UniProtKB/TrEMBL annotation:
The gene is tbp. CDD domains: TBP_TLF (cd00652). General factor that plays a role in the activation of archaeal genes transcribed by RNA polymerase. Binds specifically to the TATA box promoter element which lies close to the position of transcription initiation. HAMAP family: TATA_bind_prot_arch (MF_00408). One of its GO terms (biological process) is DNA-templated transcription initiation. SUPFAM superfamilies: TATA-box binding protein-like. This is TATA-box-binding protein. InterPro entries: TBP (IPR000814), TBP_dom_sf (IPR012295).
Length: 180
């Protein structure tokens, strides 16, 4: 396993309440801090502080949850939202929840020669005039890692911690083979 350390910065989840039509005006009028302007956006923007998360809530019973740093934190925020919707009289049950994306910062604790990496791996994209990071994409996964010359990285597209750890380990081993 690699010595690289990572920190989850954001988890994006979809939330689906079955067979319900949500009255967005009622929600925005009754949830403190909720904002709804249908001429600008077709959903309610709502932020919770404990646990910390933000929601986009749609009339269809669908919602997006962003901003939590753990799946457990997101689940608690969703549970709290569900209780608030029930308190407002909506017939909502426990929703279906699916993690869509985890955004992670990684410290590889070493510098990278991005040009050398790009020359050696066809799945690495590097164009420093457009973007200062090397973009690592590989087949059969949605996980992408952005590598910066100072040894930092950003991992996106993972839905589970195992995918993050596998990608970080793979990058570490790949980079190590270039310098051997």
């Amino acid at each position: 396993m690699t010595d690289a350390e990572y920190e989850v910065n954001n988890i994006v989840l979809t939330v689906s309440y079955e067979d319900v039509e949500l009255d967005l005006e009622k929600i925005s009028s009754n949830l403190e801090g909720a904002r709804y302007d249908p001429e600008v956006f077709p959903g309610v923007a709502y932020r919770t502080s404990k646990p910390k998360a933000s929601f986009l809530i749609f009339a269809s019973g669908e919602a997006n949850c962003v901003g939590a740093k753990t799946v457990e934190g997101a689940e608690k925020a969703i549970e709290k939202l569900t209780e608030q919707l029930q308190d407002l009289g909506f017939d909502v049950e426990e929703p279906e929840i699916e993690v869509q994306n985890m955004v992670v910062s990684v410290d590889f604790d070493r510098r990278f020669d991005l040009e050398e990496i790009a020359r050696n791996y066809h799945y690495a994209e590097y164009n420093p005039e457009v973007f200062p990071a090397l973009v690592f994409r590989w087949e059969d996964t949605n996980v992408v890692i952005l590598l910066f010359v100072e040894g930092e990285g950003v991992c996106v597209g993972a839905k589970k911690k195992e995918e993050i750890e596998k990608a970080i380990e793979w990058i570490s081993e790949t980079i190590e083979s270039i310098n051997s």
